[in-house]
Structures are given as structure tokens and as C-alpha cells.
Design brief:
The protein is mainly alpha-helical. It has helices at 4-20, 24-43, 54-64, 70-89, 116-123, 133-150, 154-158, 188-200, 224-237, 246-261, 264-271, 276-279, 281-297; strands spanning 165-166, 171-175, 181-185. The protein has 13 helices and three strands.
């Protein structure tokens, strides 16, 4: 028996994949969000997406709020708006119940960044003495330097290919959100680390490796989750107590560059932000740093000892 909920969910995801060229990460998020609503409908004995009206959707969001924070609820609502817009265009829904449904405004949290000295500690850690960790360190240092040098998103790094790299010219071309490409400069340290890794890479490559830049020891593409775990491992190994994740290196790249250059438009271009308001969050970090310096240094701001 055909499941109409599952059939239309699959058709929507296929359309998004082919026409909008969304990243695998975004598609997985859409899939998870729609599956939550599909399960909710099945539990309520409903078998059609068109059965959802705004009161029912509000009930669903209320159920989700028990396990999701406000940011995740907002992303969920955004997924449903896009899905029901598509259903309405294809005649599978009479209207979009997610349009006009709003959540309480959330104060935007500042991204967490690493101090420059912590980044240096991570990237300048001594190499392990023995294999296989010695070779793994060469690869891991290369992708860590690339994250911090060029501010890549996790998916952009995981899907980078050898043809995207030009070490001689000192740049990498990446494909970001909305299938938009941008060319990013590579710093000296990143070029050196990548060169060392590319000299080792043929030892791991095989007929299934294609042209992915970063590989596992068995020759497969280094997936996003593996990159996250290896970064956590290298941070622990370097003696860094805080949790370090890939986006933190991207945030640190943006914050440190803006702090030195004060060129918001350049940082926007490098990060691949469509809207400069997204980049402006880093100006708050810059001010926060200046405020901390002020509080420590100004004679009329220092707290009495």
C-alpha cells in the first residue's frame, strides 16, 4: 500500500536536490523535519499532508517545543513553509498552514570563537611520533589549517576536490549554499600543510577515491562526522579543554580577520554570506573584545581590588 505522506516527502526532496542543488546537510535537515510532522500525522490517524491546518500545526510545534530549542523550532517551521509552498504549487495542498505562523523572537546568540593563542596551540601541536597517528596528524592539520585559513563551511571542506585547489596561485574554489561558488585565498601555513598532505595522499588513494582532497586511510572520502571527531581528538591531544568543532574555526577565522581588518564587506564575501546582516554578528564579537580590554585597562573602569 502506497504511503502518500512518504511519497510526497520523497518527491519534494528529489526536487530540492535536483533544482536547488542544496547541500546534503540541508537535505537531511529537511528530511528530519518532515519526518517529524509525518509521524505526528500518522499518530493522529491522518494520511494526507493537506489535512494540516494552522491549529493542528500549532499543536505539532507545541509538542516539538518539549524537545527542541527555539532555534531548532524556527528551522523546523522554515522547512515546513518551503514544503507547503511546494505542495500548494503542485496542487497537493490548498494553502500553506505555516505561512503566518510565528514563534517568539529569539535573542541572537553570539558564535563561540577561539582565542588566537588557542588556535596556535591547536595548529602548532607537535606531530605524533608513531604511525598511524603520525600520518593522520598530517591530514588533520591540513584540514584544520584550511578551516582557519579560508573560513570554509564543513560541507564545503568535506566535498572539496583536487581540481578546486591551486597551491601555486594560493587559492581554493568552493561551492557553497545555493550552489554558489567562490574563490578563497590560502594562507602560507595552509599551503604548507596541504602540500605535505598531498604528498602523503597517494598512499591512501585507490580506484574509489575519485578526486576528493581529504581521504580516510582506506581511500574513501572523509565524511563530515569523521572530520568533527578528528578535530575533537586533535583538540584534546593539544590540551585544549573546551569543545572544538569545525564551525568554531570558521567563526574564529571571521572574528580574527574582522578584528584586524575592520572590512565587513570583505569578510562577507569570504564567508559566502548572501546577507551582510549575517556577517554583522562578528562586529558584536569585536566590540565585546574591545569592551573587555577597556574594562581591564581604563583607570575609571577597573574594579577595585
Amino acid at each position: 500500500m502506497s504511503d502518500r505522506l512518504a511519497d510526497l516527502q520523497a518527491a519534494f526532496l528529489a526536487q530540492q536536490r535536483s533544482q536547488r542543488a542544496l547541500s546534503p546537510h540541508t537535505l537531511k535537515a529537511y528530511d528530519r523535519d518532515l519526518e517529524k510532522l509525518a509521524d505526528f500525522l500518522r499518530r493522529n490517524g491522518l494520511r494526507e499532508w493537506r489535512s494540516v491546518d494552522q491549529p493542528l500545526l500549532e499543536e505539532f510545534i507545541a509538542v516539538c517545543s518539549e524537545t527542541l530549542d527555539l532555534r531548532s523550532q524556527q528551522r523546523l517551521l522554515s522547512s515546513l513553509r518551503g514544503f507547503y509552498d511546494w505542495l500548494a504549487r503542485t496542487g497537493e495542498a490548498a494553502f500553506n498552514p505555516a505561512r503566518g505562523l510565528t514563534l517568539k523572537a529569539r535573542r541572537r546568540e553570539l558564535p563561540r570563537v577561539l582565542d588566537v593563542d588557542i588556535v596556535q596551540k591547536l595548529l602548532d601541536a607537535p606531530a605524533p611520533a608513531e604511525e598511524p597517528e603520525k600520518s593522520l596528524w598530517v591530514r588533520d592539520r591540513a584540514f584544520m589549517e584550511l578551516f582557519y585559513s579560508s573560513g570554509l563551511r564543513l560541507a564545503e571542506l568535506a566535498y572539496s576536490r583536487l581540481t578546486d585547489l591551486d597551491l601555486a596561485a594560493g587559492h581554493i574554489t568552493v561551492t557553497g549554499k545555493g550552489n554558489k561558488t567562490r574563490r578563497l585565498p590560502l594562507g602560507r601555513k595552509a599551503r604548507e600543510a596541504l602540500q605535505e598532505w598531498l604528498e602523503l595522499r597517494p598512499r591512501w588513494a585507490n580506484e574509489k577515491s575519485e578526486t576528493w582532497v581529504f581521504l580516510t586511510p582506506k581511500g574513501g572520502r572523509l565524511y563530515e562526522r569523521a572530520i568533527q571527531l578528528r578535530l575533537e581528538h586533535q583538540a584534546r591531544r593539544a590540551g585544549i579543554p573546551q569543545h572544538v568543532h569545525p564551525h568554531m574555526l570558521r567563526h574564529s577565522f571571521a572574528s580574527h580577520l574582522l578584528e584586524s581588518s575592520h572590512d565587513l564587506r570583505a569578510v562577507q564575501e569570504l564567508l559566502g554570506h548572501a546577507d551582510i546582516s549575517t556577517t554583522q554578528i562578528y562586529t558584536h564579537l569585536d566590540f565585546q573584545h574591545l569592551a573587555e580590554v577597556y574594562d581591564k585597562a581604563h583607570p575609571r573602569a577597573r574594579k577595585p581590588k
